[in-house]
Every structure is written in structure tokens, then in C-alpha cells.
Specification:
By secondary structure, the protein is α/β, with parallel strands linked by helices. The protein has one domain (3-398): Purple Acid Phosphatase, chain A, domain 2 (4-Layer Sandwich). It is 27% helix and 26% strand. A hairpin with a 2-residue loop joins strand 8 (142-146) and strand 9 (149-158). The protein is globular.
Length: 404
């Protein structure tokens, strides 16, 4: 039985026994940026393990697993982002206990890589959501039971999906949220669309995902919804970054509208990645929306210069505390990622799993002026949502909630 189904059974049993989360219990959820992990960091960079582990705390520790698992003997020469199964062991050694598997790299190795990822996560009882052997499985909530309550995860991805990556009624793939313009053109973040094109979430996908949120709400104490998004406006994602366009720095209106619908349906937290930079934070109806938490582990090959600018190498970890179902606090720990790894980079082969790539992009807590600068940036990009960030003496930030 998969970890997802085991979690569902546990959650159902809790509901039947009437032992739902007590309203006075506190639960802490740690949300990180995306983990584009290419190795078992315990082996490739053991000195980094305690530092990374120190950033993860509380009952739930979440990241996006952005890679396709390659089993021993399988070729990685297919032009994608691959990692060995032991990378999951490294994440779990850091404390990660909840992952999304829905992103634009889930299908880099086709169905085999996606199913490898599912198999290895299930074998480790690492709770996961966002991909599956059918669309029903890919879109189903996953449940993580903790001593302080049961947390559900629903995960989805928008834009830059490979051909056939979308799960079907009978085939494996990603829980895709498609985006169309109001005149019916698909926006996959790979082609130029007319200026002024207005994006909207697909109705069929919206209905499916909202139903999953409602289902999760009935079986869990708190519901996390994850979105891996590349639809930033009306230009190709990579062109947006290559040209340094401002659209890369904030969510498009379609995404804001969509996240609000998700919270109205029962989501308690929404967290996103896709653009490898920080976007703003919003508190909507007492629920936090992290429009993009950037990177947590960023084993970026040095050939991919398009996504290599200073803001890609700083981010934040969010610690979200609920008491019962009421949001109590949001704390932000700014982090910095090393953009120079050990050994020599291979600037010609993006698929070479060399020491330099495996040891770059690892997080540590930002200190002093750098921490302050990161928090000031989050404050600036969160202003349009009416969110303020208080900068604390210890180099962390908090979001004043009021009326707690």
C-alpha cells in the first residue's frame, strides 16, 4: 500500500473515532523553497548536513522534490534533471517528511522516471502528492499524521510540462493545472502570446483540484496546497529570465485569483515554486499564501546560465504555526545558497553529475546585513498584498497578524 493510501486510511480512522485535532493543540509547519537535488548530499557534501538539518523544525517539513529518480543502470543522458534514490534519504536525514512530486522535471525521464520517484518515495514512507499512475492518484490528497494533527497535501503544476506528462484516467503523470487565455489559447509558458493576453485557470482542472481540497478538508486538520508554476505572463518562461523581464519577480493575476479560490474551498496554506526566486507573501482570510519561496537546494548545472543571477541564490524558510485551525504566527528565516561548489565545473555538459554541481546550491542561514537585505526584499514584494514584515534582532522576520 502506498504512503498516500496509508495516510488516507489513518486520517479516515481518526475521523471515525472522533479524535480530530484538539483546538488548543499547536502544530508547526516548515516550508522550504524547491529542492533541485542531484545527489545524496550525505555522501557528496557531508559537512553541509548539520547546517541544512538545523533549518528544518516542527511537525511538518515540506519541500518540492524537483527531479526524476534514476535507478542504478539507467541512463541519464536524456537531457533532464535526474537524481539517485538516495537523494530522498538525504532529504529525510535533514528532517523532510512531506514532498510534492509535481513539477516540470517530474517527467524528464518519461513514465519510467516518474514511476521510479513514486516507488522510492513509497518504499521510504515519505508522504508525497502531485504525481501518480492515474490522474485520480496524482490529484488525490496525501496525508501526514503527526502527534499534533493530520496534515493533507494536494500538489499541482502549471506550464512547461513535457509532452505526455499530464496524468490521464489510465496513465501516469502529473496533476496538471492548465492555463488558457480568455480567447482560448493554451499558455504553457513556452510560446509568445499577444501582449495583453489574460490568463485564466482551466475550468476542468480547477473543478478537480477544488474537489480534492474539499475532500482533504473533510479528512485532515490542516490542508496544504502546492503549486509549481511557470506561467508568469504571456511570454516563454525561459525568455522572461534570459531578458530579465519584471514578470519574473511577481505572480501573474491568474495565479492570485486561483489561490484565493483554493483557500475559499478549504486550503489552510498555499506554497509555490517554479520561478527560482522569492515572490511575495499574502495573508488571505487568515491563511498564508507564499507565492514563491525560491530555492532550498539548487544543484544548478553551470551550463544553465539563464537561471543564474544573484537573486536565485538567496531565499527564505517559512515556519508557520497554527493553534487548532487558527493561524498563530509566520516566521521567515532568510537563507543563502553557495553558488560555487567544490571541484571544477563542467561548462559544456549539463548532464554531467560532477562534484561541482552536486555541492553547489546548498542552504545555510543568512547573517547580518545579508539577512536584513533578504527580509527587506520580501517586505517590498509583499507590500502589494498588504503584508508587513517585522525584522527581528536575531535576523529572522515575522508577519504581524493582529487579532490573534
Amino acid at each position: 500500500m502506498s504512503a498516500k493510501l496509508v495516510g488516507l486510511s489513518l486520517a479516515a480512522a481518526l475521523m471515525m473515532s472522533g479524535s480530530a485535532l484538539a483546538q488548543d493543540k499547536s502544530i508547526t509547519i516548515t516550508l522550504t523553497g524547491q529542492s533541485m537535488i542531484r545527489s545524496d548530499i550525505r555522501a557528496t557534501s557531508p559537512d553541509a548536513v548539520p547546517t541544512i538539518k538545523s533549518l528544518l523544525k516542527g511537525d511538518v517539513k515540506f519541500t518540492n522534490f524537483e527531479a526524476a529518480v534514476v535507478e542504478k543502470g539507467e541512463s541519464t543522458k536524456k537531457g533532464g534533471f535526474f537524481t539517485p534514490p538516495e537523494a530522498m534519504d538525504a532529504l529525510m536525514a535533514f528532517g523532510v517528511n512531506l514532498i510534492s512530486t509535481s513539477n516540470n522535471h517530474s517527467f524528464d525521464m518519461g513514465p519510467a522516471g516518474l514511476q521510479n520517484t513514486l516507488k522510492e518515495a513509497t518504499a521510504r514512507k515519505l508522504v508525497h502528492a502531485g504525481t501518480g499512475n492515474t490522474m485520480a492518484e496524482a490529484s488525490a490528497p496525501a496525508y501526514l499524521k503527526t502527534p499534533n494533527g493530520t496534515v493533507a497535501l494536494i500538489a499541482q503544476a502549471s506550464g512547461m510540462q513535457k509532452a505526455a506528462a499530464r496524468a490521464t484516467a489510465n496513465g501516469p503523470g502529473v496533476n496538471e493545472m492548465r492555463v488558457f487565455t480568455t480567447d482560448g489559447k493554451p499558455n504553457e509558458a513556452t510560446t509568445e502570446l499577444p501582449d495583453g493576453s489574460i490568463n485564466v485557470a482551466d475550468k476542468e482542472d480547477s473543478a478537480r483540484i477544488l474537489n480534492s481540497i474539499r475532500e482533504a478538508k473533510a479528512h485532515a486538520d490542516l490542508v496544504i496546497v502546492y503549486e509549481h508554476n511557470h506561467v508568469l505572463a504571456n511570454r516563454p518562461f525561459m525568455e522572461t529570465y534570459a531578458n530579465g523581464l519584471p514578470e519574473r519577480l511577481h505572480p501573474d493575476k491568474w495565479l492570485i485569483d486561483w489561490t484565493h479560490k483554493e483557500i475559499d474551498a478549504g486550503a489552510d496554506i498555499i506554497v509555490m515554486h517554479g520561478a527560482p526566486v522569492l515572490h511575495g507573501v499574502q495573508i488571505y482570510h487568515g491563511k498564508p499564501i507564499f507565492y514563491d519561496l525560491g530555492n532550498f537546494i539548487y544543484n544548478l548545472p553551470p551550463t544553465l546560465t539563464t537561471l543564474d543571477e544573484p537573486i536565485n541564490w538567496v531565499s527564505a524558510v517559512a515556519y508557520v504555526q497554527f493553534k487548532g485551525k487558527k493561524l498563530q504566527s509566520v516566521t521567515l528565516q532568510p537563507i543563502v545558497l553557495n553558488n560555487v561548489g567544490k571541484g571544477q565545473p563542467d561548462i559544456h555538459d549539463a548532464e554531467d553529475d560532477n562534484q561541482f554541481t552536486a555541492t553547489r546550491g546548498l542552504p545555510s542561514a543568512a547573517k547580518g546585513m545579508q539577512a536584513t537585505d533578504i527580509l527587506k526584499r520580501i517586505a517590498d514584494i509583499s507590500k502589494p498584498f498588504g503584508t508587513k514584515i517585522a525584522i527581528n534582532a536575531d535576523g529572522t522576520g515575522t508577519i504581524p497578524l493582529g487579532g490573534k
